[in-house]
Write a structure and sequence with these properties.
heterodimer; A: alpha/beta; 2-enoyl-CoA Hydratase, Chain A, domain 1; 8-stranded mixed sheet; globular; B: alpha/beta; 2 domains; 7-stranded mixed sheet; Acetyl-coenzyme A carboxylase carboxyl transferase subunit alpha (chain A)
Chain lengths: 317, 287
């Protein structure tokens, strides 16, 4: 089994490994096998679009967590220029599960903040698997309030399983940190654009997700609890995660239908990790356009719209 | 209590309703903490606080409001907001059926009841969660009723008090329930901007999406004694960190020590203490 491919992608992986074998053979002798390679490549593309044309919510959830998927720092590198990372909450520490700093989108100064997963095991641990502690949220808020003072739009990237459930996190006020961000972001006097790039896990995601415009990448998810968590509580077994994912409607297209998400950013065939350049370009185009629109609105109108949007969630009788 | 809740809420939180069932319904009730068998009318007179060990037992939302507000001049807010099942959510049971069962059991439409009234003569708006209604979980109706209650307080510029007890977000409403955290927090920002006081009273238990939004955003945060309050439940934390939790972890007294709450108030003193505090916040004369 090829670890770069998910369970349901294994038929594609088989074709790809055949192609790789042929290429090796082709390198060793002068046989003309390029026609065969082209044929197999076309097949692989067709198979990928077939599989990706009908992904279940649970499969999308797996794509959203793919270990090769681009993370916040990849977008920072590919979409922005002149990123200067800023550290610390000024009270306790610097939580590396959230990164943030000033950068330029085209030429415009912006504040970029996002959850950051790690690639290698050392980095995963250092970043606590992108599960922030209170100081991560407090750092994020500090940067947002600074953006407000210096009139920079805030651009956030959401990619977390959730806020960290740890002893220290509780002692230092995890609930308060999240709640206070929600409160302050509702009235922050600068445009906020949030983009779910991978997993949008619960309050830990929302704590940097209150916004004027919400994007989701095509294969990202956003939910109140993980499919496994929901399944183990409501179905009493984590094995029912697929059912839970479906029932909660965690995938981008479903949430767009429900009116919670503003825009879906399409991913390259087979997911964002198959083509970083392509996804960077799509994200950059979307953000550029959204920043332009939001910056033209008088700040009072922007805040009124944001408030109405927040009040519109759920029941209004 | 609904069955899914038993799974997420650790035993220690559940003990009230569980052990209670060991004693026949009727005139007697066993204290879940000290196991004293208590005469129910006496217990009720004592606001459901054990006279032997001072354990604060759980009470429903309506009873809470009844105990807290003056008898005269109460008006319920947004009484008719009904839950709906937008997602047609179904696990082992349909969400619709769970809602009906909870409504039948509690006599409430959803997990929050709100009223305008008076506290020792001071006009206030009060909201209370009902833990018996699907674990006090916050869905769209809870969010909407909370906002309407807060709006009443804003319009009249009178203090808003919320009694929060909840297992967190309501999973059956998926992302709509998550968004209630943002919705309720946003309306509290309006109160802060206007200078309308908001007091959050946390009760046993108070977790998840409710604690990470409206419950910890009070100008003043208070709790009843020995209430279990936190973001993640103790069992989840224990499984994550794989170490024993410190003594008294996530109890009111722990939160006070860590600086998360302003004071712990015994149930019998809630009316008088909050009235005295709030009269200063709205610059009302000594009563």
């Amino acid at each position: 089994m090829n670890p770069d491919y998910l369970d349901f992608e294994q038929p594609i992986a088989e074709l790809i490994s055949k192609i790789d074998e042929l290429r090796l053979v082709g390198n060793r002798n002068d046989l003309n096998i390029s026609a065969e390679i082209d044929k197999l490549s076309a097949q692989a593309t067709k198979l990928t679009s077939q599989i990706y044309g009908k992904l279940s919510a649970w499969q999308i959830s797996q794509v959203s967590r793919h270990p090769k998927r681009p993370y916040t720092l990849d977008y920072i590198k590919g979409v922005f220029t002149e990123f200067d990372e800023l550290h610390g909450d000024r009270h306790y520490g610097d939580d590396q599960a959230i990164v943030g700093g000033v950068a330029r989108l085209n030429d415009l100064p912006v504040m970029v903040i996002g959850h950051q997963k790690g690639r290698e095991i050392e980095e995963k641990v250092r970043r606590n698997f992108a599960m922030p502690r209170p100081e991560g949220y407090r750092k994020a808020l500090r940067l947002m309030q600074m953006a407000e003072r210096f009139k920079m739009p805030v651009i956030t990237f959401i990619d977390t399983m959730g806020a960290y459930p740890g002893i220290g996190a509780e002692e230092r006020g995890q609930s308060e940190a999240i709640a206070y961000n929600l409160l302050k972001m509702s009235s922050l006097k600068t445009p906020i654009i949030a983009t779910v790039i991978g997993e949008g896990g619960s309050g830990g995601a929302l704590a940097i997700g209150v916004c004027d415009h919400l994007n989701m990448l095509q294969y990202s998810t956003y939910s109140v609890i993980s499919p496994e968590g929901c399944a183990s509580i409501l179905w009493k077994t984590a094995d029912k995660a697929a059912e839970a994912a479906e029932a909660m409607g965690i995938a981008a297209h479903r949430l767009k239908e429900l009116g919670i998400v503003d825009q879906i950013i399409d991913e390259p065939l087979g997911g964002a990790h198959r083509d970083f350049d392509a996804i960077n370009e799509s994200v950059k185009n979307a953000l550029t356009q959204q920043v332009d629109v939001l910056r033209q609105q008088p700040i009072e109108d922007l805040l009124e719209r944001r408030y109405k949007r927040l009040m519109s969630y759920g029941v209004q009788a | 209590m609904s069955s899914w809740l038993e799974k997420i809420v650790p035993k220690i939180i559940r003990s009230d309703s569980e052990r209670q069932s060991n004693v026949p319904e009727g005139l007697w009730k066993k204290c879940p903490k000290c196991s004293s068998v208590l005469y129910r009318p006496e217990l009720e007179k004592n606001s459901d606080v054990c006279p032997k060990c001072d354990h604060h037992m759980r009470i429903g939302a309506r009873r809470r409001l009844d105990m807290f507000l003056d008898k005269e001049g109460r008006e319920e807010i947004a009484a008719n907001v009904q839950p709906e099942d937008k997602l047609k959510f179904k696990d082992s049971k349909r969400y619709r059926d769970r809602l009906h069962a909870a409504q039948k059991q509690t006599g409430e439409k959803d997990a929050l009841v709100a009223m305008e009234g008076q506290l020792e003569g001071l006009p206030v708006v009060v909201a209370a969660f009902d833990f018996n209604f699907m674990g006090g979980s916050m869905g769209s109706v809870v969010g909407e009723k909370f906002v309407r209650a807060a709006n009443r307080a804003l319009e009249k510029n009178i203090p808003f008090i919320c009694f929060a007890t909840s297992g967190g977000a309501r999973m059956q409403e998926a992302l709509f329930s998550l968004m209630q955290m943002a919705k309720t927090s946003a309306v509290l920002e309006k109160l802060k901007q206007q200078g309308t006081p908001y007091v959050s009273v946390m009760l046993d238990p108070c977790f998840g999406g409710v604690s990470a939004s409206l419950a910890l955003l009070g100008d003043i945060n208070v709790a009843e004694p020995n209430a279990l309050i936190g973001f993640a439940g103790p069992r989840v934390i224990e499984q994550t960190v794989r170490e024993k939790l410190p003594e008294g972890f996530q109890r009111s007294e722990f939160l006070l020590e860590k600086g998360a709450i302003d004071m712990i108030i015994e149930r019998k003193d809630l009316r008088s203490t909050l009235a005295r505090v709030l009269r200063k916040f709205v610059n009302a004369p000594v009563s």
